[in-house]
Structures are given as C-alpha cells and as structure tokens.
Amino acid sequence: MKPLPAGLRFVERDWLSSNQVVGIDGAQATVVDTGYAKHAALTVALMRQVLDGTGARLARIVNTHLHSDHCGGNRALADAFGCTITVPHASAAEVAEWDERRLSFAATGQRCPRFAHDATLRPGDTLRLGALDWDVHAAPGHDPKSLIFHCERERLLISADALWANGFGIVFPEIDGESGFDEQHEVLELIGRLRVEQVLPGHGPMFGDVDAALGRARTKLAAMREDPGRHARHALKVLVKFLLLDVERIDGHALHERVSDAVIMRRAAAQIGMAYEDALRWAADSLVAQGLLRREGDLLVDA
Q1: What is the DSSP string of 52-121?
Q2: Least trusted range by pLDDT, from 98-102, 200-204, 214-218, 245-249
Q3: How far apart are CA 231 and CA 111, in angstroms?
Q4: What pLDDT, on a 0 to 100 scale, did the predictor assign at position 171?
Q5: Which CATH number fits domain 228-302: 3.90.1150, 1.10.10, 1.10.1510, 3.40.50?
Q6: Per-residue pLDDT reduced to its tens digit, 87-146
Q7: Distance separating alpha carbons of residues 97 and 240, to the nearest angstrom
Q8: Which residues lie below 8 Å from residue 221, measured CB to CB, with a gap of 6+?
Q9: How far apart are CA 125 and CA 48, in angstroms?
C-alpha cells in the first residue's frame, strides 16, 4: 500500500476501542472516533504522541457513529484538549437528551461518559480532514445513523464499521427487529461504486484490496440473510466477549445480573429461541470452547 498523505495518521487499536484517523490541517488537528471509555486515558496519550512535533493541537473530534467503542473517549479528549465534538446529525437529539437507550449504551450493556456535541455532519456534507476534502456518505446497516468518509482525490475511504478487511460490524437493526441487511447490502454496493484504493476501517488494519474485502463481506452478509439466527448467535457472543474485554473477569452467576437491562442482548436471545439466562450461558460456553474466554472456578475471565 502507498503511504498515507502527509496530513493523515492512522492509529490501529483493538476490538474494544475503535481505530483513530487523525487529520492535521496547519495548526489544528481532527480525530475521527475516540475508542472505548476503558481506554480513554490511553487515547489521550496516543493523541499527544501523534501530534508531538507537528505544531498542531487537537481541535475537533468527529464521530462516524455513536457506538460506545467509537465515542467512549470523547469526554476525556474534550477535557484534555478543549476540542469540539461533531456527531452525525441523525444522532444529535439523542446526545442532547443523553438517552442511553437510544444511544445503544444501555441496550448493549456498555458504558460511555456523557459528552455534549458542538456541530453535526450529515450525508452530502464535505469534511475537511488532513488538508483533504472528504465526501460524507450515509452508511446504514451496522448502525442506521452511521457515516463513512470518502476522499476522491486520494481514493481513500474511512469506512468505520461498514467494511473491515474481513467483514463488517453486527447489523444491530436486525437484532432490534428492524431492517438492516438490505441497508448493509446497499452500503457495500456504494463502496463498490466509489473509487477506493485504500480503506481505513474502524477496526483492524488498513487494507488495499478493496474488491477482495467486499467479496468477503458480501459472502458473510449472504450467510446472515440465509440464517438470521446465525447472526443473532454471533451478536450475542460478540457482546459477551466485549463485556469481558471491558471488565476482564466476572462471576459467571453475576453475568445475567450485569446485563439484565441490555435489551439488544435479550432480543438476540429471543431470536435464537432461548431464555435469556440460558443464552448468556451458551454464549459464554461457546467463547470458552473457542479459547476466547476461560474459566477460573466460578469466574469467567477474558483470554
């Protein structure tokens, strides 16, 4: 892959905290997405490291969408740098009201420190980032209000969770009883029509073979359409694993109580025809069998 333009930096994180894309525009810098709350102090340190010697200060946060792993560092960065926060326009009312159910934090058993937004982006806008202009596109599917950013000049795509090297994020609307697979299909088709040579995803490494990634994503989406229960089982395991990445260890008997109000997880259990507590136990057992969790007596431990 060719090097990124001089004004861009890509910070690869993990599956608890999203990646960051930093754009430097003279004396000011923008970061796209901020990771999870647990890693907020690390995100602040990484931004200081990335900007060290550039002469730029972090002036703005831009969120592709408001899942906790993409906006959990907003408050810490705003406190540390005094930067503004720009969110998708479709999510602005939820942020202003701080409705944790509609923002999905409570519904997934996750957490995010409260923040306020200063501006919004909507599809059709242009984002200035790293001395480049990026077209803002809607990317419903994984999240109905998500955005992705495309730089035609450099053939770059900031894809958030709409496309990774090996798939895409859980299609949450389908778990919630709403349409999402069709929308995810349309997003993949959109990306296929854009001129893209390099993708900066929300998780995982940058990649350049966009056609191959789209092929893998389409195959996975077709399997989800054919067996929605498979998607629900996958979602439940991902959410349990995410919780263990956050808390690191939890008493197996306390797991149900910890996520008792997580309605998305409850709906995933209902889709696979299991009582909620049984479904959580099944998900934990499956993750242990895969080597992604382990048991220490009554404790479930992240592996």
Answers
A1: TTT--EEEEEE-S---HHHHTTHHHHHHHH--EEEEEGGGHHHHHHT-TTTTTTGGGT--------SEEE
A2: 98-102
A3: 23
A4: 98
A5: 1.10.10
A6: 999 999 999 999 888 899 999 999 999 999 999 999 999 999 999 999 999 999 999 999
A7: 28
A8: 168, 181, 184, 185, 188
A9: 29
